[in-house]
């Protein structure tokens, strides 16, 4: 009988294109993936992959196995989702995925309140820029900011929340220096973006110099240190006492906050409780997300 775990390792390598990608996705080491694939090949009596300089390529036998393996994965996901959907207890694991800024600068106190209300629920908060796959049960609830509703996957159930806006921020000390005739600030960029054209002229211009960061926490730390100006969501920038929003600049819309679940999972009691709880908190935060107030006011 084929070991389903061997098939999972094969699928991860086939979809990822390499043993390294499969190991990272499954949270194991390189040798474990190789061993599992070798076990599957021994059982089936066929080679699944050709090793090329560019990565792993499926053999003809591998292509045929992949078709059936994908069907097995889909059936497994469906079975797991249906069983999970019938679980009406308020105990067990609950995975929530959302962007790191929303977790660290807005919703973590609310997750703490929810955990205190429901001590039997084991929460796992996946704060990352990567989108977890709800269909594969990588997460039970996704909180995402979506600019265009048409970008929402059709297989997900969505509850629409408030709109999220951003502004342009300097540290208060750097702003005072600039207002007193000091040099124009640099532009702090995240994830490889360049200097926006509008910042080279007008009231809120920058020097054109670029200071790059790779993550949100580094970006906000840089603007606090007076390195320059940057774009931040209003819920983070307005609530930070070290920062101020640049005058004479318009807010820009990031998108709408959505609470997303998938299929049968949304019927479970712990998922429903979290969705209801966070949706109520988001209503309270709507002015903050729109740049109209400071958290706590």
Describe the structure.
This protein has a domain at 4-85: Winged helix-like DNA-binding domain superfamily/Winged helix DNA-binding domain (Arc Repressor Mutant, subunit A). The strands form two sheets. Strands 3, 4, 5, 6, 7, 8, 9, 10 and 11 form a nine-stranded mixed β-sheet that branches. By secondary structure, it is an alpha/beta fold. It is built from nine helices and eleven strands. The chain has helices at residues 4-16, 19-26, 30-44, 60-85, 100-117, 172-179, 216-224, 234-237, 269-289; strands spanning 49-52, 55-58, 92-98, 121-127, 141-146, 156-171, 186-190, 210-213, 228-233, 243-245, 252-262. Helix 5 links the parallel strand 3 (92-98) and strand 4. The chain is 41% helix and 25% strand. Helix 1 packs across helix 3 and helix 2 (19-26) crosses helix 3.
